[in-house]
């Protein structure tokens, strides 16, 4: 074969083999790294060590989102990033930003309502920013009034800023009145 034809073919084959991974490959790499991180995190106490264990997970999911933003797997990866930030890394500020980004980037994704609810929930219950929680719970109820979580969002909205003790005392105070009125109805 002619050298002028062979050299471009060899270069093309090398470049093709060195190309970026597919969305599925990034997801699979992220999932494997997540298994490894979960196993390691069970034995780690230091937050920075846990963050280091999850760094390859987040990197693969972020690469998937960055490289293939329109792939349906990108929405899954972005939601996983936010979930890891909230649940594994215990970083509600980062989680809120990631959930917000998810709701803006993938507003019609099946998990968009959950992401919006979790923004409000984290603001209220983890960050303590009731003003932002009110905005996001209201936004959730306006956009998803019939969603399964609408009742929970309304409860949270009605009880913003209340301590667990205040919520319990409200329930305890309401319980006897409800019981008494039921007893009267029976007689």
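Q: What amino acid sequence fits the structure above?
A:
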């Amino acid at each position: 074969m002619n050298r002028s034809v062979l050299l471009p073919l060899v270069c093309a084959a090398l470049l093709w083999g060195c190309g970026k991974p597919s969305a599925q490959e990034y997801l699979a790499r992220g999932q494997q790294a997540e298994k490894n991180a979960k196993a390691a995190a069970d034995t780690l106490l230091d937050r920075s060590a846990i963050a280091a264990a999850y760094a390859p997970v987040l990197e693969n999911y972020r690469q998937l989102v960055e490289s293939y933003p329109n792939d349906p797997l990108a929405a899954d990866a972005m939601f996983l990033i936010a979930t890891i930030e909230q649940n594994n890394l215990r970083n509600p500020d980062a989680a809120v930003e990631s959930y917000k980004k998810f709701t803006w980037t993938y507003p019609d994704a099946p998990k968009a309502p959950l992401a919006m609810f979790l923004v409000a929930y984290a603001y209220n219950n983890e960050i303590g920013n009731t003003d932002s929680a009110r905005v996001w719970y209201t936004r959730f109820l306006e956009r998803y009034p019939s969603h399964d979580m609408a009742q929970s969002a309304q409860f949270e909205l009605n009880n913003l800023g209340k301590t667990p003790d205040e919520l319990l005392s409200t329930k305890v105070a309401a319980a006897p009145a409800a019981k008494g009125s039921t007893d009267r109805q029976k007689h």
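Q: And what stands out in the fold?
A: The chain has two domains: 20-90, 99-187.
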